[in-house]
Amino acid sequence: MDNEGISIEEVSERLKAQIVEGNYQFAKEVNAFERPALPIVLDHQGRKITHGTWGLKKEIPKDKPAQGINLTAEKTHTFYRNYEHNRCVIPVSGFYDWMHVSNPGKKTPIKVKHRMHWKDANQFYLTGFFDVWNNRDLHHLG
């Protein structure tokens, strides 16, 4: 994901959300493995912009650092009941996915990182789920 250059003030104005803190991570490429503190907008005791950490588990196994980073469509039924009402949006300026490009003379295509963004907008929103932990009210994204 890419959230470089987004304006928290613009997010606040557009979504009518109160800015409650400012310790967010902004970068051209936000890496989920680092569990960054991303700005999120949620309705929890009022509409707020706060930070959330990317992942589905509070504890990250040292031998499996990627475990619980993303929630795929195939697994949403497992989490849906827990997060039925805990939806949030994440302001971003772009996101990345892999394109499979044919590799002439080879059977296996090449994976190329591809940045997607809106042509005429500097920021937009991705959806997510949140949970409020008892550990200093840290928010958790899925």
Residue share in helix: 10-25%
Radius of gyration: 17 Å
The general outline is globular
Mean pLDDT across residues: 78
Secondary-structure element sequence? HEEEHEEEEE
How many β-strand stretches?
Answer: 8
The fourth-level CATH homologous superfamily is SOS response associated peptidase-like
Let me know the largest β-sheet. 5 strands, mixed, barrel
Question: Poorly predicted ranges (pLDDT <50, ≥5 residues)?
Answer: 137-142
Structural class: mainly beta
Strand order of the largest sheet: 2-3-8-7-4
- How many discrete structural domains? 1
Overview of the molecule:
The protein is mainly beta and 142 residues long. The chain has one domain: hypothetical protein yedk fold. Helix content is 11%, strand content 35%. It is built from 2 helices and 8 strands, in the order H-E-E-E-H-E-E-E-E-E. The longest helix has 8 residues. It is globular and about 60 Å long. The C terminus is likely disordered.
Brief sketch in words of this structure:
By secondary structure, this protein is mainly beta. 11% of the residues lie in helices and 35% in strands.
List the helices and strands and how they pair.
Blueprint lengths: L7 H8 L2 E2 L17 E7 L3 E8 L21 H8 L3 E6 L2 E7 L8 E7 L7 E9 L6 E3 L1
Parallel strand pairs: 1-3, 3-8
Antiparallel strand pairs: 2-3, 2-4, 4-7, 5-6, 7-8
